[in-house]
Amino acid sequence: MSGEITQLPLLLLLLAVVAFLYASVGHGGASGYLALMSIFGFSIAVMKPTALVLNILVSGLSFYFYFRAKEFHWKLFYPFAIISVPFSFLGGTITIETHWYKIILGTVLLFAIARLLGLLGAIQNQERPVNLPLALFIGAVIGFLSGLIGIGGGIILSPVLLLLGWATIKQTAAVSALFILVNSVSGLFGFVSQGGILPQSSIPFIGVVLVGGILGGYFGSKKMNTLVLRNVLALVLGIAVFKLYTT
């Protein structure tokens, strides 16, 4: 608990920065929140529900700004969402051992780092039709993982859409934002259905991520360049991965 209290001002500042960065690219920020809470010594019982709640707030704000910019396309969204939502609920009902939670979370964070640093290959310049069976399979996998560890799945969906050439960068941001929102809501319902509650210690986080999310969604939809900030965020995630794998 000491890590949750004594360094609270620094944690609040970093949470706002993470919300800003993720919202600017259409994400909710769960992987970043989980990374920070891991660094600051929070328990898994606090990390999962807190990340889901903050994800809902920030992804909702991000989607609002990208939707207003007319970047959202329903045909890109529904193949992933219709199957991911029930699988996210299923994942949210499952509580896994600390050891496996750290391994899964660390793997997802490594994926996030690769995405932030642009290490997942070249982005396609032309849009291709969505392969429905493949989209359904991807949606199911991402949805289950989202509910299981408390993320929205956008950090995985975004590179998939881009690398397969199914969407432009801005369309990807818009689709990912709503995808994260519905999966986070579903995962949170699954968590609550098993008697889980939002810890009171995480309530102060809501205000700061709202501010960061509003600013990030606004500036991100206006084509803001966040390359340097993404590199900093990748460093934070890297520290978290090291901590997860060595403790």
From TrEMBL:
It comes from the Bacteria. This is Probable membrane transporter protein. The lineage of its organism: Bacteria, Pseudomonadati, Bacteroidota, Flavobacteriia, Flavobacteriales. InterPro entries: TM_pro_TauE-like (IPR002781), TSUP/Inactive_protease-like (IPR051598). It is a multi-pass membrane protein. It is found in: Cell membrane; Membrane. Belongs to the 4-toluene sulfonate uptake permease (TSUP) (TC 2.A.102) family. The chain crosses the membrane at residues 38-64, 76-94, 100-122, 134-167, 173-191, 203-221, 227-245. Keywords: Cell membrane, Membrane, Transmembrane, Transmembrane helix.
